[in-house]
Specification:
By secondary structure, the protein is of the alpha/beta class. The protein contains 16 helices and 9 strands. The chain has a 7-stranded mixed sheet, with helices on both faces. Helix 9 packs parallel to helix 10. The termini are far apart.
């Protein structure tokens, strides 16, 4: 293919432009360059773009990843509609055919010497893992319908910070199988999430109980279970609850399912945040959408920390105020309790984790060491069990034996 054909093809891209795929701009400069020095300079910029993205020797990998995770007209339309505008489909097909040809580039095509380090064609990411990208438009639309576009396609978890979404690139990869015992409370949360993912009625959930019993871990594990099906999570600090309408607006136009996660939730009696959370849970002009649920964890059943001095004062209807504060938890449709384990449950947790890690230790040694560990840390809990197993595994691999 002649240089003018490459250049013309790049200039004709309508959907996957330089804004979404920086290498497109670098290649345009390369095919526009005059003279060997200018070409080498332009190619170096192109190569650095691939290398920084992790695809130094994989053209298909680079271009397919940029296509899948870009935020463009076609991707946005496909992520929220069952049928994409016909002209957008044709434009995406046109662009994909050009991008696939770019994956077969050689030094000779770019007017470069044969000895220059040049990336191989490689293999693309599904659904663009093989040839005929132009014929994969429907499959690409289905990918965006299931996984969203842009940040939502690339990431499953986000933090709400300074009024915007911040992707969490490395999440807690714990699974439901990693969590031992507590089957009944987890079953209730899991079934509620299953209904939510199927578009059935589902409730906001409050997981409350003793510290270290796996409330937050349960929520993280559920995200990992359903992320491949289109579930996303936004962790929101209690201090930002007033910004809930901004979150609602940010998620407008996507068909993905979102859990708004508020960890370690509690209020003081003079904290008006509970009223803002109440509006988020029920009512309010910016009420949550059907594709959003709120999951919260707390060590408090009623969420409001109350002191005896709070019962004093000169409010005329103080009892009504107290009832309003204490009823906040009731606005969660599903409340699930996690309490510290008894001795046998604690042993069951230890045995399960030790078996998963194939630790060469007898049950008697394991239980005795774990009891000493729990005694020094304020009692038994799934958290202390896992901490002891971490400690024990390290000692065994260091050749120190059971502590």
């Amino acid at each position: 293919m002649e240089k003018t054909d490459w250049y013309g093809g790049l200039c004709s891209l309508m959907i996957y432009t330089e804004r979404e795929i920086p290498a497109v701009g670098k290649l345009t400069e390369l095919f526009r360059a005059q003279g060997e020095a200018e070409k080498r300079c332009a190619y170096a910029a192109f190569f650095r773009e691939l290398a920084e993205a992790g695809f130094a020797d994989d053209l298909r990998g680079y271009f397919s990843s940029r296509v899948l995770y870009s935020d463009n007209l076609f991707a946005r339309e496909a992520s929220c509609r069952d049928e994409v505008d016909r002209m957008l489909m044709r434009a995406a097909e046109h662009d994909l055919e050009i991008l696939e040809k770019l994956c077969a580039l050689t030094p000779a095509d770019a007017g470069l010497p044969a000895e220059i380090p040049f990336p191989a064609a490689g293999r693309g990411l599904r659904p663009l893992e093989d040839a005929r990208w132009g014929g994969k438009v429907e499959a690409l639309a289905a990918f965006h319908r299931k996984n969203g576009c842009g940040l939502f396609a690339r990431n499953k978890a986000f933090l709400w910070r300074d009024g915007d979404l911040v992707p969490v690139t490395h999440t807690n990869e714990i699974t439901l199988d990693d969590l031992k015992t507590y089957e009944e409370p987890r079953r209730r949360v899991l079934e509620n999430t299953q209904a939510f993912m199927k578009g059935l009625p589902a409730n906001n959930v409050l997981l409350y109980g003793d510290r270290g019993t796996g409330k937050s871990s349960t929520v993280h594990a559920i995200l990992n279970r359903y992320a491949p099906e289109g579930l996303r999570m936004i962790e929101m600090p209690k201090s930002a609850i007033a910004e809930f309408p901004k979150v609602v607006e940010k998620l407008r136009g996507t068909a993905l399912k979102f859990i708004i996660f508020i960890d370690d939730l509690s209020f003081s009696t003079n904290d008006s945040g509970y009223a803002q959370l109440k509006a988020a849970l029920e009512g309010g002009l910016a009420a949550r959408r059907d594709n959003m649920l709120i999951y919260a964890t707390s060590n408090l059943r009623h969420l409001v920390r109350e002191k005896f001095s709070d019962r004093e004062g000169d409010e005329l209807h103080r009892r009504d105020t107290m009832q309003e504060q204490l009823s906040l938890a009731d606005r969660f449709g599903l409340m699930v309790t996690f309490i510290n384990p008894g001795r046998q449950q604690y042993y069951d947790i230890l045995d399960g984790i030790a078996a998963d890690r194939k630790l060469p230790v007898s049950a008697e040694e394991l239980h005795a060491g774990a009891e000493r560990w729990a005694l020094s840390r304020g009692g038994r809990s799934p958290r202390t069990a896992r901490q002891y197993i971490d400690h024990l595994e390290a000692r065994i691999k260091l050749g120190l034996g059971v502590d």
